[in-house]
From TrEMBL:
It comes from the Bacteria. Residues 13-78 form the XdhC- CoxI domain. Pfam families: XdhC_C, XdhC_CoxI. Gene3D superfamilies: NAD(P)-binding Rossmann-like Domain. Residues 204-350 form the XdhC Rossmann domain. This is XdhC family protein. It comes from Arthrobacter jiangjiafuii.
Length: 380
């Protein structure tokens, strides 16, 4: 969503009408998750992709019609047994795509690039302009706060009292969810909404200044993380050694993690990798990291180092449940040797860990069922 909203903001500033095509429902095996968007500008520029090529041409054609008459559409694209040339997904899944035309007067105050926000669009009946929620963590911290900031917009969107809907929507918006929300019931106007969230980039904290940190920084930046390299040694910890990192900080890593946690800069999507190979750093920083509510904590080292480290962590008071969260030795076994291959191994494990039960970690050819089981409200 981030790239699409930035392109939309640019188009609005230039007075250029455009249409956003967004996947609002996905069933079966589909290549992209709910919330994936593509922007079609009035000058023919296309940003993003919905399916990797299966249905893009058909979506663009519908978007051009939407731009011509100003009316939104909800279209379904799926595999067709009867017409091999029909626009569809050869992988067998189905995508419901909402095509919403925009003009510069509809969203005059789009947030700056990278700023967290959320869009609420009504899907049932005649679709209207979406409601933009800036700073969703604060604006939807409670239903009362959501009503205070956006009560009038919700009332216009629902054509009903916004109070019952705010109770349902506030926790979803604050958590950065994306997906359909069926409010149901006459008290909410029977509305079906589509919620799109754009969160700040997830954090990747790399502890240790070495070639592995450099490779992971490059990989992390490619995957959309905000990358920090942290080490207490000033001679090794310089920005020129880690050009892909957003931040390079000289500090004791355990202190840095605690400060970041206290400031709210770390969240349940954050990733921490300890790459120091030095017991002076490893035990203290891992003991701090394993107490945090983050997505992944990994530590590099041999199996022998791992056994020594686990014993030291247990002696330092880290609980067995916390120790189970540690990915060590870090990465998946793909035969990696170089720092770049190791970064690939580590990020393969990070992606699998963040995907939860949906990821087996096995070769796709050895599995069954849909390859892309995206059909639920998800967190970016």
């Amino acid at each position: 969503m981030l790239e699409i909203l930035d392109a939309l903001a640019s188009a609005m500033e230039g007075g250029l009408p455009c249409a956003a095509a967004t996947v609002v429902r996905a069933t079966g095996s589909v290549p992209r998750p709910v919330g994936t968007s593509m922007l079609i500008s009035g000058n023919g520029t296309i940003t993003g992709s919905l399916s990797g090529g299966c249905v893009e041409a058909a979506v663009v054609a519908v978007a051009e019609d939407a731009l011509a008459d100003g009316r939104p559409r909800l279209e379904s694209f799926g595999y067709s047994d009867t017409d091999a040339f029909a626009a569809g997904l050869t992988c067998g899944g189905t995508l419901d795509v909402m095509i919403q035309p925009f003009s510069p007067v509809m969203l005059p105050d789009l947030p700056a690039a990278g700023t967290p926000c959320a869009l609420l669009t009504r899907m049932d009946g005649p679709m209207s302009a979406p409601l933009l929620v800036s700073d969703p963590a604060a604006a939807a911290a409670t239903p009362a706060e959501l009503l205070s900031r956006h009560g009038a917009g919700l009332r216009a969107l629902l054509d009903a009292d916004p109070l019952p809907a705010a109770a349902r929507l506030a926790p979803l918006i604050a958590a950065g969810r994306t997906g359909q929300v069926d409010l149901g019931g006459p008290e909410c106007g029977g509305a079906v909404l589509f919620l799109e969230s754009r969160l700040a980039a997830p954090r990747l904290v790399l502890v240790g200044s070495n070639d592995f940190s450099d490779a992971l920084a490059r990989q992390g930046r490619l995957l959309g993380y905000h990358v920090t390299v942290c080490d207490a040694r000033p001679a090794f910890t310089t920005p020129d050694r880690f050009p892909a990192a957003h931040q390079v900080t000289v500090q004791w890593p355990d202190q840095y993690l605690r400060q970041q946690d206290q400031s709210g800069a770390l969240d349940a999507r954050s990733v921490i990798c300890v790459l120091t190979h030095d017991a002076r750093f490893d035990v203290t920083v891992l003991a701090a990291a394993l107490q945090l509510n983050v997505a992944y904590v990994g530590a590099m080292g041999s199996r022998r180092s791992h056994e020594t480290r686990m014993a030291a962590l247990a002696a330092a008071g880290v609980t067995p449940l916390q120790l189970q969260r540690l990915h060590s030795p870090v990465g998946l076994d793909i035969g990696a040797a170089s720092p770049e291959e190791t970064a690939l191994s580590v990020f393969a494990e990070i992606v699998a860990a963040r995907s939860g039960a949906a990821a087996s970690g096995l070769p796709l050819r050895d599995g069954t069922g849909p390859i892309h089981p995206f059909n639920r409200l998800h967190v970016s």
